[in-house]
Structures are given as structure tokens and as C-alpha cells.
Inverse folding.
């Protein structure tokens, strides 16, 4: 009953096995390992993007920040949802990597920007010529930070707004596989066919030890990316161990299978919470991440049996009024079991 | 016969086993895993520094850059040897992380600064008041980039020069274990007892998959370090896998055993090269890294049998004059065997 | 009838005379001129702050940015009003100078933050520990960008909120003299007595050619300021000409006289607009800057006779429906005359 | 007898008069003043560069830093002479503005790089692929910091080396007019015809109050320059006063006349020193700046009568051995008189 985060789950056994296999003998360092060539080919194939530049880094913050820095100059703005990970959870990494670009926060229900909302934000910016920060790029997150998903068509609609202003588009896909499973889109449909220029293709939240790929559809900036990555300390000498994780992830659709597992138990959890008297979901979750309000008593029973997840608010002690609804976040992962979910649901139902 | 780099060697089996053990169940992310507490305690004990702040990152460039940024303001200089990794091999990472500090390159034979040389460089700097870059800090590398070692007394002598100017001292210990084995110093003698303020305590070149510790003896800047690390994308969500590596490294002296192995085969290699007619070492190597000049014919015989290492110069093809001496770099690792070395020596002897 | 901006006005004759006087013979460069000592003493006296560090720069953006960089680390936020000059009109200079700090925009009527609004913004920030940008400082603008003024008591109330979070306070005083004239506060009451740590003390909008002072009440950071200023290219070699302007400004209360003139004509203009049928002020202006809505026909008559000021909106042509109200900004300066104002009022009244 | 620096001289009377003329009435701010159009045209004509982008800033450090930042990415190096102003005297401004580029210092007699020396430095750099800082650009200074001049042919030879590596070239022309007078070259010959891409065209050391132009021969980067200038606080609201200075400077060849005056008295001084027993010039000065060694007694006599200039070394007191030679720097300016020089020469001759 561990619903704290999908980044607290273990590494998938297929990935551990791949690491063990990769550990034989010597390998050229710094991305010149043989496995990286396989990874590049596999990701290009999955994205139907034979020319794409593909690089590995170890954290999502790095993937996002390097992607933003590649496309947004220091004197420009990244337009993103108010709840975006780049805005809320990266301690200013985008500002650090871009050398001081600004994030412009766009509101929108359930963690999603709308084309009209994005257009209004873009239209209202950069009206002062040289005096204000210029429009730089747009960054979307899918699965959103609120647990909802953009369909490929919704991504395309937002990207079309960005393109109308001549701006590149980044997709933070920390839960990219979950988004594909949730929406049925292909990688290409969700990205370059929709107008996305660069993707943070997540692996860590979905069974890897710590690898994300940055996929840049136009390889013109590939060398600049390599320099930025190295300069930031994100080029690994023993790179084969990153490659091995990603190779295993891409092999035989493991990445989509793991996401399908996570989404399925997530949906089971969501349905169970929604069906529990006194409990309510904030928004219908699309995948494995959800926000819900439960009575304090329900939390207390679950907590007492070891359930782990974030409860929000200023009075989260289990000793207050048992009827008070307390909001919480639940994240299922590839390793969450239906039994875990059912046990938790039984507990909150008392 | 793979002497390209110690960062091309595999991960030590004890470390792989620790990763497998760490992969059971869930663990709190972002350094809040239980294993990190063990790591912190083990490193503090090893360094006899019960108050030290201890953090893990995944690459040596990161460890160095964050350490420098913590102690050197943007308008100041880091004084280091001309061949230092921070100067030659990090694509400007120190400048990026410090927001534009300057490196002042100090000459010195065999990769080592001398107290007089350092003092002269410091004395000649910052004479223009506000007009020039201020003196910021001193950074040493041990094992040096030329394969030599500073004794603890030599580190202390250099640190004393730095302290005379009020400057903090960083030690790039990418091969710290090798340096201790080579000199017989304890971790404390080589660092804080000698006047070092912050250490990049390397693991990746010595059997880990990708972990370095930053050890900050005065914990006053610990929180700033945490913010800098996060902001740079170097705080791992699945941090337990970094912790597990370092915990295994520190357990029962594995780190020193691995370094002792590497140094022993390195010395065997060095002695063998030195004893080979027509071959010469550039400087007597202290540990597992060395530069040597071999006749082209010797290189050619070794290469033909698969020996791998860097040969320098503008005419490194194996087809030229067989008597021409060509300089090369050789690095032994924990996994290099005496058999490897002997086979190589037999080859170069023809 | 030139109401575009107070920074489009000429230099006051007293200041031109001082420049001419300063042009005799040689003077030591880089702030070591004799006049700077007078300036320092005069500003310290005016602010009743005998220990304050006082520096001159040439633009308001520079004064603000250096002040923010001095007090806000790169991984922290500056809390300011949504309309603040640092947020809207400096092309990201705060982000550039702070190496990537974030601005958090606080709403508030008529360009003013309220203590409750500021407190709410602060309370809602930095809840994620190392994961999000930390609280850094608070920046106020007085006269605000909307033409209103904070009283010294209001500044103190806002600063008290900042202090409750342990944060330093910056005051953007591009129109500081106008604010003092408008509110009757002394320089000390409006700044350090109210809890302000650093002031951008404006001169350029109030009759100087291009000089602002940065007044830092705790001189501990003085040397860092000098290095930051030099490193940014803002230390003038022929500094005496900056000193001369500021010395003239401080002499015999010229700075307050010029502001009083500007405020008086500004208020005359505001009263006249308010008394004109079909015209309305957005907020009662406190000084020389105001926003007002006039029928297109009124604008057209004034424009036809050469009145200059900014009209906002997407349909600002003078050919549309004459009754449509169009918002505009008017700024009076020390050199605006009552005749100018009366002529303009006569024109808009038709 | 004030030879401290040409930036300690007064403003030329023609320039003061122009400032007074510019002070009539209102003018649009931020470079939209009418005089700036004249300036742009005059500089384009002078440089025979009708397409060049021309911008004004107030200090030489700013002109240099913005020029470097425009052409050198953060992960690259600027190759310059070891004594260059950008390396020695700007407190790291190039590193600040470029976001962390590195300066590579090239040696060369009398403050001048040679093509061979530059080529060797370039050839030795960026050999490590992604691991080290890339080659970025070359920066020359003319008049050099040692008082010598590059001829246009010498500039062209150095630029040819840069171009062979595909690098842009910057010319720090803080004393550009002096260099033209010294060598007889035209502005075009000394710059774009020789392969220079961007010039810091100095005015402050040659009779202006504080204005330098940045001349960018390919205007493709003009808008980026404007954003960088604004973002750094170097766009002046009352820009007309910068324009007025530069307009006066360009009018009727004032800039060359002032430089000719400075060079003439400088050469008179140099010849006089060289002809004085016991005194020696370090290198034959080309213009108005020179280094010379005089016996302490000579210095003492001059100092006693009020001569002002920098004496170098650790024992510069006038009380030591009167025969000891002490090195010093002398700078003549447009306002230095032949009488001043002759009086000084008489003093040192005793």
C-alpha cells in the first residue's frame, strides 16, 4: 500500500537483468558504448523519427532543463501550466539551465492548458518590444501533474497555438508511457506529428533505476545538446549502465507493459475511491496518478495499517475530527498490485 | 588489455549485489532512503569527521563543480594545476556552476603544483582592486592527472598557502582511494587535517556504477549544497541506488581493496614498461595511471592483439616508422589482471 | 504637452551647470573622484543613515537588478507586484543579475500589494523543501507603476510581513522623490525605519541625465556590490560626471523641489481630467503618473495639436468611433508646465 | 602633468556643447531619439558599412562584454592576449555576460599576439571533443594594453588565423581612434576589411563623457544585441545624451582630431623619456600610452611637483635608493599639453 510516488518503486526485474548483462568486461565511456547505438535505433523506431537526436540523462529535471535551455534563450519565457513540474518542483532548474529565462504560468482546469488559455497568455506577453522578456517556447506535461492526460489531438491544438507565435514546443513526458497507454496514441502522434519539437521521455517513474531520454526531432541542435549535457555534469562516464536500462525498457514493449500495469491498478484504485461513500476524486485520473479527498477516519484506518501517501493541508494529524475531508495524492506504479489496492480500499471503507 | 580508463571498467560484484539487495520493495525518494543514513555515517567515520555534510552525485564533474560553486563566488578565481580535470576535461562545468568564475592555471612538474608556484600565482592575482577577478579558492587533484600523488604533507603545504590568502581548498579525489593507497595517508590526514574544506570523493573510477560523494567538513553550507544539487538536476529520485553503491563501497574497506588492486597492477605495468628497452615512463606513477612513451612497433604489436589505450600525437597510425616513440596513457583498474599486464608487456617486448 | 514619460524630459539646468563645473581639469576615475565623497555624505545625511553604503549607477534597471542580486540567491524568489517594473519592463534583468532567481507576482489593486496578499503569496511558497524555489526577498515600488503611493506606514506593514519570513526588502524608488512629496514621509521613514534594506534611489526620471543611487543600509555587502557593479560594466571610468549630477540633485533640496513641481502639475492634470465629462481616472494618482480613460474624440483633438502620450488597446487609431473610451497613460515631469496642462485640458474638453 | 589615464581627462568642449544643445525640450527615450539616427549614419559612413548595426553603451567593459556574448557561446573560449583588458581589468565581465565562457590567454611580445602564437593556441585547444571547452572567438585590442599598435595588415593576419578555425573576431577599440591615427588605416581597413566582425568603438578615453559604440558588421544579430543590452541595464532611457556625445564625436572628424592631439603629445613624451639619460621605454609606443622605467630620483622630482601617473612594484616609495629604476605607465590624452610634457621632462632630467 505504497502510493507515495512511482519514483519510490523498485526497478523492474528485466532492467536489473540488463544491468547485470551489461556488466561484463570493458566498455567505451561517455556514450560511446555499443548499447547506446541500440537505444538510439530503438527510440527512433518507436517514434518513427529516423533522424531524431537521442540522448540519455539520469533525472527528469535534467531532461526538462536541458531541453528548455536548448530552445529558449535567456531573455525569453517558457509558457507552461501553473502546476507544471518545471515550475513547481525543480528548484529553479529551468532558470539555471536557461541562464535566466522566465516561466509564465498559464491556468487551466485539471492541470491542463487550453488553446484559448495559452493563446491569451501568449497574446498578452512581449508587448513592450525590447523592454520585456520575449516569447520563448511552450512546455506541456503529459500525464499532467494533476493526473489527467492530453490526447494527441489536444497536444496538437496547443502546439498549433505555439506555432502561430513561431515557438517551439517541449513535452515533459516523465509519465509519457502512461499517457500513451491512457490515450491510445502512438509516440509519433503524441509528439512530432502533433508539433512537439523535443520530448523528455521518462523512464525512472516507470521501472528504470534512473534514466530519461531526450528526443530532439530536428538534429540540428544535437551537438549543442551534447556540450550542454557535458558542461552540466550529466554525461556519464560509465554510460553503458544508462544505455542498458533504456535498451531493456524499449525491448519488446516493456515500457508500455509497465505503464499499462501502473495505469490498470491506478484506475482500479480510482474507481474504488470514487465508489467509496464520503470519498471523491478531484478529477477523473487518466492513468496512475490521482488526487482525492477522504474523510480523516478513512485516512487514519489506512495509515494505521501502513498505507503510505501524501495528505495535504495544515491539519493532517490523524487525531482531529474523523469526518473532516482531507485531500491526498495517490500514485500507483508498475509494481503496485491489485491486492494492495483492494486492501487499501477495504481499509478506507472501514 | 584494456587500459583506456578506469571508468571503462565494470562494476565490482559486491556493488552489483548491493544494488540487487536495494531493489526490494519501496524506498522514500530524493535521499530520504534508509541506506543514505548508513552511507553518511560510514563516510563520517572513515574521515573522522562526525559533523561533515555528505552528499551523493553521479559524476565527478558534478561533484567538482558543485563543490567549487559552493565556495567560489562568480567574481573570483579557482587556482588549479594547468592539467586539472576541472580545467581540461569538464567543458566549462566550473564556469557554468559558479556563474562565471575564472580558472587560473598554475604550472608544476608532473601534474603537481608546488607551494612556491601556487604562492606566486596567488601573489600575482587580484592586484587591481575591483578591476580584476578576486582570489577565490584553490583546487587540488589527487591522484593528479599525470598519475602522480600528493602526500598528505604536500597537500597540507599547498593548503597552508591557500589559507595564508584566506582561501578555501577543494580536493578533486576522483581517484582518492588510489591516492590513499599510494601514500599511506588516512582520509582525515589527506583532507581536513591538511586544510582541505571539501572533497570530491570518487567512486565511479574505482568500481562503482556512477557515484561520487561530496564531503563538506563544515556543514554550514549544507543546505545551500542541497539547493544547488537539486537545481542542477543532480538529486536522484531513486536515490537508494546511489546509496547502495556507496554503502557497499564503504563496507569492510571495499573501496581501499579495489584501489589497492588497481594500484598493484598499475605498478606492475609501470615497472614492466620501465624495464622494457626503448620504453620510458614520463613520471614515476604513484598509482594506477601513467604516461609512457613506446616505440611505434611496440604499440603496433599490442594493438594488433587488442590492447586498448590512448596514443597521443598527430601521427598515431601504426603504419609509420616503427622506431618512432609515441606517447600514450595507460590506466589500470580494479578489474585489470596481472595476466593482462604481463600479456601486454610480452607484446611490447616483441 | 509631452506626457509620454518623465524620462523623456530634459535635464534640470542646475544639473547641467554642475556637469559643466565638474568638467574642469582631471579627476581620478572609477568613483575615486572628490565629488563622490560629497554625494555619499549628502545621501547618508538625507537618509539619516551614517553607515549606509552608497553607489551610483546610470539606469534604474541596473540599480534594481544589482540590489536584487545582492540579497536574493539564484534559487530563491523575489515577491513583487504583478505590475512591477522589475517584472514587466526590464527584459529579465533581475533573472540575469541574480543568475536565475524567480519573480513571484503578487496581485493587488492600484499597483499596490497588501500585507495580506503578500503574506498569502509567501505562505504558499517554498512548501516543497529542496524541490522548489526558496523565498528570497520582497521588492516594492514607490510611486507604484500605477501611479499610486505607499505611505511609510504601508511600506512598514509590508516589510513586517517580509521580516516575519526572514526576508530582506528592496524599494524600487525610480520615483522616490515623488513618493516622499506625495506622502510627506522622510527618506528614513520611507526606508530603513520601515524595514527596507536597500533602495534604488532614482534621479533620471526627476531631472538628471542618467544617475540612480543604490543605498544599502547595512554596509556589510558593500564590497560585493562593488564587484558586482564592476563585473557588469556599470562602474564608470569618468565617474565624476555621475557624481556631479547626484551632488547637484542633493544640493539645497533640488531633488524634492523637482519632484514637487512634477507632482503639482501631475495633480493639476489629474484633477482636470477627472473634472472633464466623459473622462475618468483609473485610480487617484498620488504624484505625477496616472492612467485615465478619455473618449477617442478627446484624444483626437489633443493629438492633432501635438499632445504626446501612450494610448493603449488594439484600436488606437484616431479614426474610429469618437465616443469610444480609450485608456491612456500620462506622466508629468519637473519640466511640465501648468500652461501645458491647461492647454491639454482645454483640448480634451473640445 | 596628469598622466594617470586618458579616462581621467575632461570632456572635450565640443561634446559639452552638444550635450547642452541636446537638452532642449523632450526626446523619445531608449534610443528612439532623433540624434541616434544621425549617429548611426555617421558611423556607418565612417566605417563604409551601410548595413552595420550600431549601438551605444556607456562603458568599454560593457561594449566588450556584450560583443563577446553575442558571438561566443557559454561553452567556448575567447582567445586574447594575456594582457587584454577583458582578461585583466573587467572583473570577469566577459564570463558574466557570456554565461561562463573561458578566456584563453595568448602570449606575445609588447602586448601583441602573433599569427603563429594565436594559431598554436587555437591548435592546442578543443582536442577533447565534448570534454573540453570549444573554440569560440578571437579578441584583439588596438591600441594594445602595452601601448603598441596593430597595423591593419597585422589585424588581417590574425583574423585570417581565426577564420581558418571558423571563428569570429572582436576588436577592443577603446583607443580605436588612436590606433587609426598611429597606423594611418581607415576604419574599414582596420575592421571588416581585415576580417573583424564586431568592434568596441571607444569614445570615453578620447574626450567623451561616457559613450562607446558597438559596431556589428553583420546585422543579423542586431535584435539579440538589443535584448542583451536592455537585459543588462545598459539601455539608457535618456539616450539622447549618449547620442549627442557620439554625434559630436563623429562630426567633422573630431574623434580623429582628439586622438591626433593625444598621440602627438604622447609621442613627444615618449621621445623625451627615451632621450633622457637613465630612462627607457619598455616598447616604442605607437600612440598615447607607454610604459617606461625611470630612476627613482626622476620620479621623485616629478611627483614633488604634482606629476601624476602609476608607478609599479613593491617599493614605490620616493624615499629609497634614488638610482633604482622604477617602471611606470604614462597616458596622454586629448587635453594633455605640450607644456605639460615639457615641464615633466624637465623635471625628470633634474
Amino acid at each position: 500500500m505504497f502510493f507515495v510516488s512511482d519514483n519510490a518503486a523498485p526497478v523492474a526485474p528485466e532492467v536489473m537483468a540488463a544491468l547485470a548483462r551489461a556488466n561484463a568486461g570493458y566498455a567505451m565511456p561517455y556514450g560511446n558504448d555499443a548499447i547506446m547505438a541500440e537505444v538510439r535505433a530503438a527510440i527512433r523506431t518507436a517514434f518513427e523519427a529516423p533522424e531524431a537526436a537521442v540522448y540519455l540523462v539520469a533525472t527528469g529535471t535534467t531532461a526538462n532543463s536541458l531541453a528548455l535551455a536548448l530552445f529558449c534563450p535567456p531573455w525569453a519565457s517558457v509558457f507552461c501550466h501553473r502546476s507544471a513540474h518545471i515550475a513547481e518542483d525543480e528548484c529553479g532548474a529551468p532558470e539555471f539551465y536557461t541562464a535566466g529565462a522566465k516561466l509564465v504560468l498559464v491556468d487551466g482546469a485539471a492541470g491542463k492548458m487550453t488553446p484559448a488559455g495559452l493563446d491569451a497568455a501568449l497574446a498578452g506577453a512581449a508587448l513592450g518590444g525590447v523592454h520585456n522578456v520575449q516569447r520563448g517556447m511552450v512546455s506541456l506535461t503529459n500525464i499532467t501533474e494533476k493526473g489527467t492526460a492530453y490526447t494527441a489531438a489536444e497536444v496538437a491544438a496547443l502546439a498549433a497555438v505555439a506555432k502561430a507565435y513561431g515557438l517551439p514546443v517541449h513535452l515533459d513526458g516523465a509519465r509519457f508511457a502512461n499517457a500513451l497507454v491512457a490515450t491510445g496514441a502512438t509516440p509519433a502522434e503524441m509528439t512530432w506529428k502533433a508539433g512537439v519539437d523535443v520530448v523528455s521521455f521518462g523512464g525512472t517513474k516507470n521501472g528504470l533505476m534512473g534514466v530519461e531520454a531526450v528526443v530532439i526531432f530536428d538534429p540540428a541542435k544535437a551537438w549543442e545538446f551534447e556540450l550542454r549535457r557535458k558542461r552540466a555534469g550529466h554525461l556519464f562516464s560509465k554510460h553503458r549502465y544508462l544505455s542498458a536500462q533504456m535498451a531493456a525498457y524499449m525491448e519488446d514493449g516493456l515500457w508500455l507493459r509497465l505503464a499499462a500495469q501502473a495505469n490498470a491498478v491506478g484506475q482500479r484504485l480510482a474507481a474504488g475511491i470514487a465508489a467509496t461513500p464520503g470519498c471523491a476524486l478531484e478529477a477523473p485520473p487518466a492513468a496512475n496518478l490521482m488526487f482525492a479527498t477522504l474523510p480523516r477516519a478513512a485516512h487514519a484506518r489506512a495509515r494505521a495499517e501502513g498505507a503510505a501517501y501524501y495528505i495535504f493541508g495544515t491539519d493532517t494529524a490523524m487525531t482531529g475530527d474523523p469526518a473532516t475531508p482531507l485531500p491526498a495524492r495517490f500514485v500507483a506504479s508498475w509494481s503496485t498490485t491489485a491486492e494492495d489496492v483492494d486492501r487499501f480500499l477495504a481499509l478506507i471503507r472501514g
